[in-house]
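> call design_seq(struct)
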């Protein structure tokens, strides 16, 4: 088991990570962060659970992980290997699987999953290298490797390795920046995928416009042409609160 000195250093580094990377924690004292920040609680509980698991203590590691999950909404398997300075912002819904490995100074937002893809045994969760940021709701699935310094966009679904210092977005996740530059190639614009329905409607609208102009040139007013007798179905007023929300 690690000595008290090294445990204290890890705690200090975890608290410092929250102060450095959470804008809402600027000016907040270490003891307040230690008392209130759920991401910090989850990481500290994991460090204890992981040390007990390494020392082959039965039952207790899973119990600690379970209680931490109840209190924070963050589920970290006690066997997951987590480097120093992990910061989990907000945290609710974060899942870190048994064979996941996380390097130093990684940031995770709420709803991030470092999960497996099925029922396979062995190494089945992602490896995340140092200084990676993973946006809220992102799902990283399988024994993939996320290179150091990379950013994963919110709500991405990543199932392939991510090169270092890149930004990956979308489902499936694709790099939109590598070393600060857009990847080259005709199919590399994953941030602006085509919208075939919108393209079809634009095509029809432009065709109708051309036909109306051609008719007008022949002296026919397009408004006088009888149309389909089908009337659009009127929307019915609903009772209760507006379903559109607000
Ligand atoms: C991906 C992210 C980290 C930005 O990284 P970056 O390297 O600075 O990338 P950029 O902002 O330059 O964006 C690169 C491109 O990806 C697009 N993009 C960024 N995030 C995206 C996302 N989540 N989904 C889809 N596209 C995204 C941008 O529009 C941009 O498109 P462009 O090529 O037209 O410029 C950021 O957008 C993000 O998702 N952060 C997560 C933040 C979060 O979860 N906050 C929760 C707080 S509670």
């Amino acid at each position: 088991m690690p000595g008290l000195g090294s445990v204290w250093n890890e705690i200090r580094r975890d608290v410092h990570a929250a102060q450095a990377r959470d804008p809402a924690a600027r000016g907040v004292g270490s003891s307040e962060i230690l008392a209130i920040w759920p991401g910090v609680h989850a990481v500290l509980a994991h460090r204890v659970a992981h040390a007990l698991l390494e020392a082959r203590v039965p039952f207790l590691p899973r119990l600690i992980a379970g209680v931490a999950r109840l209190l924070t909404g963050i589920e970290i398997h006690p066997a997951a290997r987590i480097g120093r300075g992990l910061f989990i912002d907000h945290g609710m819904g974060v899942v870190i699987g048994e064979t996941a490995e996380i390097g130093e100074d990684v940031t995770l937002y709420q709803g991030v999953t470092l999960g497996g893809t099925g029922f396979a045994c062995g190494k089945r969760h992602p490896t995340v290298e140092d200084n990676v940021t993973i946006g809220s709701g992102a799902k990283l699935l399988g024994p993939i490797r996320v290179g150091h310094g990379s950013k994963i966009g919110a709500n991405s679904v990543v199932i392939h390795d991510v090169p270092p210092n890149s930004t990956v977005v979308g489902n499936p996740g694709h790099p939109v920046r590598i070393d600060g530059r857009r990847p080259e190639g005709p199919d590399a614009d994953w941030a602006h995928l085509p919208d075939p329905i919108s393209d079809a409607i634009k095509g029809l609208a432009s065709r109708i416009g051309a036909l109306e102009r051609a008719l007008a040139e022949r002296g026919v007013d397009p408004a006088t042409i009888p149309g389909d007798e089908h009337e659009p179905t009127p929307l019915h007023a609903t009772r209760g609160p507006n379903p559109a929300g607000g």
